[in-house]
Amino acid sequence: MGDISIVTLGVIALNVLVSWKGFNDYNFFDKYKFRVGSILQGKEYYRILSSGFLHVDFTHLFFNMFSLFLFANSVIAFFASPEGFLFGDFSNGKLNLGYGMFLLIFLAAIVGGNIFSLLIHKKEFGYSAVGASGGVTGILFAAITAFPTMKLGFLFVIPMRAWVFAILYLGYSVYGMKKGLGNIGHSAHLGGAIVGILATVLYYPPIFQINMVYILGMMIPLIIMLIMILKENRK
Prior knowledge:
Layout: H1 6-24, H2 26-32, E1 34-35, H3 36-40, H4 47-50, H5 58-80, H6 82-87, H7 95-120, E2 128-129, H8 133-146, E3 151-152, E4 160-161, H9 162-179, H10 186-203, H11 206-210, H12 212-234
Helix pairs in contact: 1-2, 1-5, 5-7, 5-8, 7-8, 7-10, 8-10, 9-10, 9-12
Transmembrane segments: 6-23, 61-80, 100-120, 127-147, 153-172, 184-204, 210-230
Keywords: Hydrolase, Membrane, Protease, Transmembrane, Transmembrane helix
Organism: Algoriella xinjiangensis
C-alpha cells in the first residue's frame, strides 16, 4: 500500500499545474480564487471548485499535497473494500471503486468546505481564499473515521492517536473560525471534515457502530460549532 496511485498522482499533478499557473499569472489567480462577493453578486459559482486547486505559494502547495499523499492509500483501500480492509480479506478487484470514492470525496470536500465557508462569511464580500485544504481535510477525516486508532506522527510533530488529533483539530478550527485566527480558512477545513466523516459513514454504515465512541467524540466540537452558529443567527 506504499505506492502512490495514478489517481492520487493525477490530483497532485493537477494541483501543481494550476497552482504554478496562479503563481505566475495574477489575473488567472484572481479569476479563479474563492471570493464571496464574486460568487454571491457575480454568480461566479465555478470559484467554489476552482479555488481548491490554487495555492498562495509553494509551501502551501507542498503541505497540502504531502498531507494528501500520506492518507490517500488508506482511503482508497478502505473504500475499495471496507470489510476486507478491516477484517483481513482485502479484494484488489474492487480498487476502481476505491479510486472513484477517493476522487469524489476530495472534490466534494472542496465544494462542501467552500459552501460552508460561503455561509459563514456571506456578509464579508471581500473575503477570499485558495487552497486544497478543504479537500485534503475531507480525505484526512475519512481516514480517521475508518481508522481512528492509527497513530499520527512525523507530520504532526507529537505522536498521538488519530481520534485525539481529530478532536483537537476540530476544536481548534471551531475556535479559530470564531476568533478569525490567522490567515487560515478554518470554515473550509470544518466543512471538508464534515464531508469526510459523512461520506465514510454513509458508504459503510457499520463503521459507525464499530467506531462509535471515536466518531461521537469527533462530533462534540461540531455540535458546539452548530450551537454557536444558531446563536449568531438569532442576533
